[in-house]
Amino acid sequence: MGLEDIRARIAKAEAEAGRDPGSVTLIAVSKVQPPERVEAVLQQGHRCFGENRVQEAAGKWPGFRDSFDGIELHLIGPLQTNKTRQAFELFQAIHSVDRPKLANTIARIAQEEGHCPDLFIQVNTGEEPQKAGILPADADAFIAECRDMDLPVQGLMCIPPVEEEPSLHFALLAKIAARNGLAGLSMGMSGDFERAIALGATHVRVGSAIFGERVAAHPA
Ligand SMILES: *Cc1c(COP(=O)(O)O)cnc(C)c1O
After folding, report:
1. Which domain of life is it from (predicted)?
2. What is the Å distance from ligand 1's center to 194 Cα?
3. Percentage of the residues of the chain whose pLDDT score is greater than 70
4. pLDDT value for 106
């Protein structure tokens, strides 16, 4: 547990997969964590964090940004279109692009603002009705649609079903990315990030294994 341990495990997984050291970005998922735990990780020099709610991030990160330089924030949870502009102000990357309406809104605001966060398209690899994400069968068309809008799509993201072996989902995501020429793969959490790295993850989203269990105000 803790940042140093996770960094060491990532380095080991990179080596075992024959991947370059540092080829995997660690997104420390700080949602719901008490500020002192987040500050401790900032003090250790880590700068890349993930949040799943725009509102929560807006309350917490401007303050940390006053005290620490170089913070990079990733939005890893669902984005309502009416919060898109606020998301542009806070986040350097959005991992939850999951529907045409949102892609359209992002394209319009990118035009107006003259910049756009890095984008990952979320794929619902388990085809779970309650889960966000484009269905695997619709992914190629949606990726093409986003590219037609000149959106900076870096890669794909998935959250595998809780009850299933995640490797099958990581492999599916990697396959969809490869056939679409996308390099980024946002996959792997506390319980499975090593398996995700073995299958090509470029961004792992690790929360509880760094910060400790979340106080269950609002879980994932
Ligand atoms: C909360 C969350 C994570 C981190 O989960 P842990 O199991 O605590 O590592 C990763 N990805 C998403 C999308 C999340 O919402």
Report:
1. Bacteria
2. 14
3. 98
4. 98
pLDDT digits (tens, 9 = 90+) for 39-84: 999 999 999 999 999 999 999 999 999 999 999 999 999 999 999 9
31 CB within 6 A, ligand 1: yes
Q: What are phi and psi of 124, to 5 degrees?
A: -85, 75
CATH architecture classification, 3-211? Alpha-Beta Barrel (3.20)
148 C-alpha to center of ligand 1: Å? Answer: 31
| Tens-digit pLDDT profile for residues 26-40 | 999 999 999 999 999
**Which ligand 1 atom is nearest residue 31's CA?**
1
Helices 136-148 and 100-113 pack at an angle, to 10 degrees, of 20
User: Nearest C-alpha to atom 12 of ligand 1 is from which residue?
Assistant: 76
Q: How far is the CA of 197 from the centre of ligand 1 (A)?
A: 16
- Does the global pTM surpass 0.90? yes
Query: By alpha-carbon position, which residue is closest to atom 14 of ligand 1?
Result: 220
DSSP line for 32-80: T--HHHHHHHHHTT--EEEES-HHHHHHHHHHHHHHSSS-EEEE-S---
Ligand 1 within 6 A of 180 CB?
A: no
CA distances from 49 to 27, 175, 177 (A): 5, 27, 23
- State if residue 107 touches ligand 1 by the CB under 6 angstroms criterion: no
Res 220 pLDDT > 60:
no
Q: Write down the residue that tokens 């279109």 correspond to.
A: 81
Q: For residue 29, how far is its CA from the centre of ligand 1 (angstroms)?
A: 6
